[in-house]
Amino acid sequence: xxxxxxxxxxxxxxxxxxxxxxxxxxxxxxxxxxxxxxxxxxxxxxxxxxxxxxxxxxxxxxxxxxxxxxxxxxxxxxxxxxxxxxxxxxxxxxxxxxxxxxxxxxx
Length: 107
Known about the structure:
Layout: H1 2-6, H2 12-19, H3 23-53, H4 59-78, H5 82-106
Helix pairs in contact: 2-3, 3-4, 4-5
């Protein structure tokens, strides 16, 4: 929520309506959305580092999930359609949930 305030991205659909057919305005909204997605991916990496520092996960576990997240960031940057981007976001959600589940089971 805090980041949404910083990038002034409250309601994407409403902002797109306001833009109408203004390509520059729509590009600005798109860039804000992409920034928010990338920040969330970066945040997952930070959370991983916190788990490592707390001794909850091993160095190998941290390296593996961070590498997976980096790969998803690259895929997101290379994606050419909204469907591809949505699929990558969905993949990250499952990747993170699976990671957390394995961490919890190991404790």
